[in-house]
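F.,

This is the one I mentioned.
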């Protein structure tokens, strides 16, 4: 088992740095492209939402803690923040049958993340939001 841990400032410009660090960490672990892509997509979406909503686009003094555990058969991604309590799993799923121009803005990110991972769990621990995503190393979609 190998573990990546990084804490970033709650600023949008920190997210690409995190993505680069994750990519470098995953490279030697022979993780299939689709799984790496899904992890990158989830980190980008969730971290962006934390910056924008959990911290009300703060000055960047708040932190987002990210860990990724690579195991023999699965990967476990965890994002933590001390922002406002928010369980994204309670959000109403968007109506994807509507044409894009008729859909309300937002809501697709967590919808997509839930479909790209085998298990998505949220919990509030004290003042921390903890979102845990689990995916099989062999997932193809």
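My design for it:
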């Amino acid at each position: 088992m190998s573990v990546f841990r990084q804490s970033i400032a709650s600023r949008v410009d920190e997210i690409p740095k995190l993505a680069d660090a994750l990519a470098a960490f995953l490279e030697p672990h022979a993780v299939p492209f689709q799984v790496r892509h899904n992890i990158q997509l989830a980190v980008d979406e969730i971290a962006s939402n934390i910056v924008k909503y959990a911290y009300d686009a703060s000055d960047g003094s708040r932190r987002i803690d990210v860990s990724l555990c690579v195991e023999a058969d699965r990967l476990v991604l965890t994002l933590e923040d001390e922002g406002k309590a928010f369980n994204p799993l309670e959000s109403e799923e968007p109506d994807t049958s509507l044409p894009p121009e008729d859909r309300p803005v937002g809501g697709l990110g967590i919808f997509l993340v839930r479909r790209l991972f085998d298990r998505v769990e949220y919990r509030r621990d004290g003042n921390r939001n903890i979102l845990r995503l689990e995916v099989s190393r062999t997932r193809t979609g």
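The chain has one domain: 2-136.

Talk soon.
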